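User: Quick one: structure for sequence A, then sequence B.

Assistant: Sequence A:
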Amino acid sequence: MDDDPSTSEPIADGQFNLVLCVVSSAVAGIGIGLFGCLLSAADHMKRRNSGVHTSIGRTFQICGICGSIVFGLASLVGLIFGSVSLATVVRAGSTLPSNAIFSQLLGLRPLVRDDVLGTLVTISGIVSFTIFQGWAFYQHSREEYLLRISSPGSLIWLCFLVISQAVSVGFWVV
């Protein structure tokens, strides 16, 4: 049996899984960028108001926290459909342009030439990486992923992360 993935039969839904991985990771990155900018806008409003949140600043903060948590967890969806490296690069790469765009829309800072060039270089890198990545030698099945994520060690770690996140959000909101 040949272990070279280029000579083996392709997975029937391999291209569709690749598209799902890229799209879900990109949407997660855009959401993380949006809600991160909402948190920054809430912080700017608080500083302008002598360290006290206004009602809209508090709303931005709560929406930013909830959205960051939801889209942070949603960034794991890409791992079901593709490799860790692809999901990570696409998510991280889509976060930078979305930060640039949403910081402009929320008036957080001016968009300068270096921001535009950095965004274009990042998008070019993402496209190049995605096109030339190729297939991984071993791809986890959905069943294996769900089995591993539901193991006692994984569940304990996920519970620890959720509790840590809840405690940190509680300290940050107060």
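Sequence B:
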Amino acid sequence: MSDQEKPSANTLYPLKPNYKGKTKGFFAWLHHDHILEWSHNVRERTVYVQENKPNDEMKTRAEHMIAIPDELIPKYSVEALQKWKEAHHKWDEALQKREEADQKWKEARQKWKEALQKLEKADQKWDEADQKREEADQKREEARHKWDEALQKREEARHKWDEALQKREEADQKFSHNPKLRKFLKANTPYSWDETNQTLIYE
């Protein structure tokens, strides 16, 4: 086959054969009822679609699932996505701290139980065991306090993550109506899109 006869590389349609385009970024119609979405790995979605979606949907999905060129992405979408990633990272960190605090609280509670058990068994060493129980109880309360603080921080981080996610989705929705994006989609897909019901029309 000569160079002129070689087929052009598939850099736009992840569901079509020999896809060589980006795997992370903005894509159209990863799901039938959503024009624009960001994916950290589009291959995960294509594998799921190929293994789980009806065969009579595949032609429409393959023609519509398309990578959005980076030059079309507006600044507000990029900024909203970045803020969402930062909020998600902070939420992960807060969750990790809460889990660490939870583990320390469990350890302190276990020690408190052990001290209490010794107290119940050792009548002759009551004062000594009671002192240890009080110390263990104090440590348990301190650990619980730290756990509560970690939980509060996790909830605050989750709230910020939710806000960032909402802003990202709003930015994506705004970008979905971008004239340049619609022009690109209409030029590169059959554009079987039901605007009223927000879903693909399967042929």
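The two ends are 34 Å apart (CA to CA). The chain has a mean pLDDT of 88.

User: Thanks, that's what I needed.
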